[in-house]
């Protein structure tokens, strides 16, 4: 199953698009733990995997790696 066939991953992509719209030209922040809470995953590892895969597919660009309590910063560059 590709990300486009997974309704939750499509919803995450739409969320990232809306976060970028809200942030304007600045990067937005999103943590794997927040993705875990939104999609009710058992661990944050799934959220981290989804965010990494979006970066590999160039849907997101990680502009700043998160550290400690600070979430990673991203720019959305995906469809629509």
Helix segment tally: 3
Largest sheet: 3 strands, antiparallel
Rg (C-alpha, Å)? 12 Å
Report the strand count: 3
Look at the structure and give the mean pLDDT.
Answer: 93
Gap from first CA to last CA: 21 Å
Order of neighbouring strands in the sheet with most strands: 1-3-2
Question: In short, what is this structure?
Answer:
With 80 residues, this protein is of the alpha+beta class. It contains three helices and three strands.
Set down the secondary structure blueprint:
Elements: H1 7-23, E1 28-29, H2 32-39, H3 44-56, E2 60-64, E3 73-76
Antiparallel strand pairs: 1-3, 2-3
Helix pairs in contact: 2-3
Question: How would you describe this protein?
Answer:
The protein is an alpha+beta fold and 80 residues long. It has three helices and three strands, in the order αβααββ. α2 (32-39) crosses α3 (44-56). The model has no long low-confidence stretch (mean pLDDT 93). Helices cover 48% and strands 14% of the residues. The relative contact order is 0.21.
Name a few traits of the molecule.
3 strands; 48% helix; alpha+beta
